[in-house]
Amino acid sequence: MLERLYRDVSPPVARILDGTLSGAELGTEDAVLLLGADGPDLHALLRAGDVARQEDVGDDVTYVVCRNLNFTNVCYVGCSFCGFARHRDDEDAYDHSMETILDKCRVAIARGASEVCIQGGIDPRKDHTHYREILTAIKGEFPDLHIHAFSPEEIDFGHEKSGMPLTEYLRWLIDAGLGTMPGTAAEILDDEVRNILSPRKLKRDRWVEIVRAAHSVGLRSSSTLMYGHIESPHHVANHLLLLRDIQKDTGGFTEFVPLGFIHEKNMLYNFMGSRPGPSMAEDLRILAVARLFLRPWIRNIQISWVKMGPKLGQMGLVSGANDFGGTLMEESISRESGSQFGENTPPEDFRRMIREVGRVPVERTTTYGVVRRFDDPALDPPSLEPGRHGELSGPARFRVPPRRRVAAVPSSY
Ligand code: SF4
Questions:
Q1: How far is the CA of 96 from the centre of ligand 1 (A)?
Q2: How far is the CA of 283 from the centre of ligand 1 (A)?
Q3: Region label for 76, one of left (φ > 0), alpha (ψ between -120 and 50) or beta (otherwise)
Q4: Is 260 helix (H, G, I), strand (E, B) or coil?
Q5: Which domain holds residue 270?
Q6: What is the DSSP letter of 320?
């Protein structure tokens, strides 16, 4: 009788899913079809994503204990989807001192972090030396802390100011302690879309040039996509193809992270008429399609719990994803755009959520080395979170931020 569950799957979708589970590589037209899957086709797609995940990486679900650190929100790029950026004269504009940056790293380490993820706005008053100073200051005090930092947009800005050849500039940052690079600022790698989302941001070819150069000097990166705004399934499929092609050449991507557009507090939705972010089905579809399309080249598909929320994140883990991302401890970029899902998930909550879907929690390094596998819940370490042992102070989990007015100027990676 199980056949009844699949008899309504349309023949083209059944053929594609059958093919990919037998090892065939998906084409962009296949991806476009799957990105529109609904009803029984959608159910079959999500199940295929989960089967492929099991075959590719087994039942471990990884996460990294990390801190996000947005060192300044002053930015003049003006992306229409951003609610984070501020003019330097805005009341709530900030630019952290090195002391504050080091304090934040210190607190992160005390809470078990192995990584700090650093990104900031593009402030024209700064130059390439600022990025290097952040790296040397952190490494001087915390040599073992992995620094995952500086989007291709920031690399573009610093590189232009430096006057160095690109690979030399990247090596200069690596020498100062840069460990890996976030593959953000990708949004949709199509200049027609980019010119609407953010005309002043780096173009597709420059993003590709920076990422390929980074991989060529041994600087690995994540890869991302922002969906749920003005893009079409063709844009998404071509974006995935580009990432797969880069990965075939360089092997430098550590993971793929689809980032759903947060619409509440930015121009793109409020004044430019974009879609209000992805539906639940789109969130799950993109994870399954990414798993099927990128296999076997990119093995780690990450859910963004900040954008999806914990429960939909758990659904993502049974639709093709195998990584729960980072604990973050602090998150401004999605929150300032209107995300309701807070800024900190303690490791023990990750482990609980992972176990709830029948999988095994594994703490990892940034580059997916195993720190610790948590097979037995009885042997879990005690929480390092403030407020978990009776204290009344400390950061709230899944804090719902107070609603703010729509930002006059844009937001988010
Ligand atoms: S997303 Fe926001 S902070 Fe980043 S470059 Fe665009 S406007 Fe600046």
A1: 17
A2: 23
A3: alpha
A4: strand
A5: 59-379
A6: T
**Measured CA distances, 80 to 85, 199, 253, 266, 411 (Å):** 10, 9, 27, 6, 7
Q: Which two tokens stand for residue 219?
A: 């600087």
Q: Is the CB of 82 under 6 A from ligand 1?
A: yes
Q: Is 262 in the pocket of ligand 1 (CB under 6 A)?
A: no
Amino acid, single-letter form, for residue 211: V
Query: Rounded to the nearest whole angstrom, what is the distance from the C-alpha of residue 186 to the centroid of ligand 1?
Result: 12
115 in a domain, yes or no? yes
Q: How many Å apart are CA 190 and CA 354, to the nearest integer?
A: 35
Edge-to-edge strands of the sheet including 323-326? 323-326, 60-64, 360-364, 370-373
In short, whether 84's Cβ falls inside 6 Å of ligand 1 is yes
For the chain, state the CA radius of gyration: 21
* Closest listed residue to residue 237, CA positions, set 57, 34, 16: 34
pTM over 0.85: yes
Q: What is the DSSP string of 342-408?
A: -S---HHHHHHHHHHTT-EEEEE-TTS-EEEE---GGGPPPP-STTSSS-S-SPPTT--PPP-PPPS
Question: In a 3-state reduction of DSSP, which class is residue 244?
Answer: helix
Q: What is the CATH number of the domain that holds 106?
A: 3.20.20.70
**Closest by Cα among 254, 371, 347, 343 to 302:** 254
79 within ligand 1 shell (Cβ under 6 A): yes
What pLDDT score does 406 carry?
Answer: 34
At how many degrees (to 10) do helices 233-250 and 28-35 cross? Answer: 130
In a domain, 399, yes or no: no
CA–centroid distance, 135 to ligand 1, in Å, is 21
Residues of the chain with confidence (pLDDT) below 70: 1-2, 331-343, 387-413
Which H helix or E strand runs over 254? Answer: strand 253-260
Within a domain: 21: no
Residue nearest to atom 1 of ligand 1 (CA): 412
Supply the DSSP string of 23-82, one letter for each residue.
TPPPPHHHHHHHHT--HHHHHHHHHHHHHHHHHHHTTEEEEE-EEEEE-B-B--S--TT-
332 lines ligand 1 (CB under 6 A): no
Q: Report the domain count for the chain.
A: 1
Is the Cβ atom of 182 under 6 angstroms away from ligand 1? no
